Amino acid sequence: MPLLKLAAPIIAGVLMTATAHAVPEVGKPAPDFSAVDSNGKTVKLSGFRGKIVVLEWTNDGCPYVQKHYGSGNMQSLQKDAAAKGAVWLTIISSAPGKQGYVDGAGANKLTKSRGAAPTAVLLDPEGAIGHLYDARTTPHMFIVNKDGTLVYMGGIDDKPTSNPGDIQSAKNFVRVALDEVMAGKPVSEAITRPYGCSVKYES
Question: What span, in angstroms and rounded, lies between the C-alpha atoms of 60 and 99?
């Protein structure tokens, strides 16, 4: 009997395909990793145990990313998270020669120019962390709670467009999830659909 071929779903222009490696699961320990940040410092996820951690995949050339940074929406989230004691790790998994790739100096210049406020910007040009988390879009958001459990993964909000005018009426999944985690509550929508540009991996 022939197997049925299922078409992969497309989210905001990004083809979502099956992967051979394990993918992160909400309710399970977040995959640990270490990476060099934009200042040359080695950062390890497990080193932030005891704090809530937000992971944000970014690509400054992506119009969906520009939507949230150009409007100040992402910076507002970063600053609110920091004010409440959370760690924010912005991750760049663009490969050399691909859209969004920067070195450490370029990442620091970008952070300054757009008034961003991450705890650190992690450089992932080989895509190791991106593949570990099955990061598919920019932005793609994850939240890890204080004991290292992944409690949210998905989109930043429910308006999968590149139009900044949609932000005001959007439900910001990340903001809601952060508030719930910080209040000691379960995340009401722990898995949502990410949207944006595809992560520009080497292959």
Answer: 8
Beta bridge partners of 98: none
To which residue do tokens 């120019």 refer?
113
Contact partners, residue 3, CB within 8 Å, separation at least 6: none
Q: What's 21's DSSP letter?
A: S
Which CATH class, in words, describes the domain spanning 26-198? alpha beta
Q: What is the pLDDT of residues 109-167, one digit of tens each?
A: 999 999 999 999 999 999 999 999 999 999 999 999 999 999 999 999 999 999 999 99
Q: Which amino acid is at 130?
A: G
Helix axes 73-83, 63-70, angle to 10 degrees: 60
CA 32 – CA 132 distance, rounded (Å): 9
The DSSP symbol for 54 reads: E
Q: What is the rounded CA–CA span in Å between residue 141 and residue 139?
A: 6
Tokens 């937000």 map to which residue? 54
Domain ranges of the chain: 26-198
Nearest to 38 by CA among 95, 113, 118: 118
The CA distance from 60 to 185, in Å, is: 33
